[in-house]
Amino acid sequence: MVLGSLPESMDLAKQSANQRGITYTLLRDPDTNVTKKLGLWSDMMDMPWMGYMIIDKSGRVAASDLQLSEAKGAAPATVDTILAALKQAQQAEASGRQPQATS
């Protein structure tokens, strides 16, 4: 599952996912309820952290990073970072071993 907490439309989120080859289920969270429950919300900034969290099938956090760069032009590297962490979690799951959580 890929969680997007920005108030963008689901069509825009799907378009963005398609452009990046992301085929995972998208969960739109415009009210930020899920984002807050997962600890991805900054009360101080009153907005989601610029980061990600990968949760495996058992509900364990397999990887996360809440301090991704928001610098201009950083988005492609950010997407690559998330996809690499996801691939590592998938490989660990396929081999029957626990992925090493990152943060």
Strand order of the largest sheet: 1-2
Regions with little confidence, pLDDT below 50 for 5+ residues: none
- Helical segment count: 3
Instruction: Estimate the global geometry from the Cα principal axes.
Output: globular
Helix-residue proportion: 25-40%
Main pleated sheet:
2 strands, parallel
As a whole number of angstroms, the C-alpha radius of gyration is 14 Å
Strand fraction band?
A: 15-25%
Please report the total strand number as a whole number. 6
Into how many domains do the coordinates divide? 1
Query: What is the string of SSEs from the N terminus onward?
Result: EHEHEEEEH
Class by SSE composition: alpha+beta
Distance between the termini: 19 Å
Mean pLDDT: 79
Outline of the structure:
The protein is an alpha+beta fold and 103 residues long.
How would you characterize this protein structure?
The chain is of the alpha+beta class and 103 residues long. It has one domain (2-95). It is 35% helix and 18% strand. It has helices spanning 10-19, 33-37, 75-95, and strands at 2-4, 26-28, 41-42, 47-48, 52-55, 61-65. The strands form 3 sheets. A two-stranded parallel sheet has the order 1-2. Strands 3-4 form a two-stranded antiparallel ribbon. A two-stranded antiparallel sheet has the order 5-6. Strand 5 (52-55) and strand 6 form a beta hairpin. The two termini are 19 Å apart. The model has no long low-confidence stretch (mean pLDDT 79).
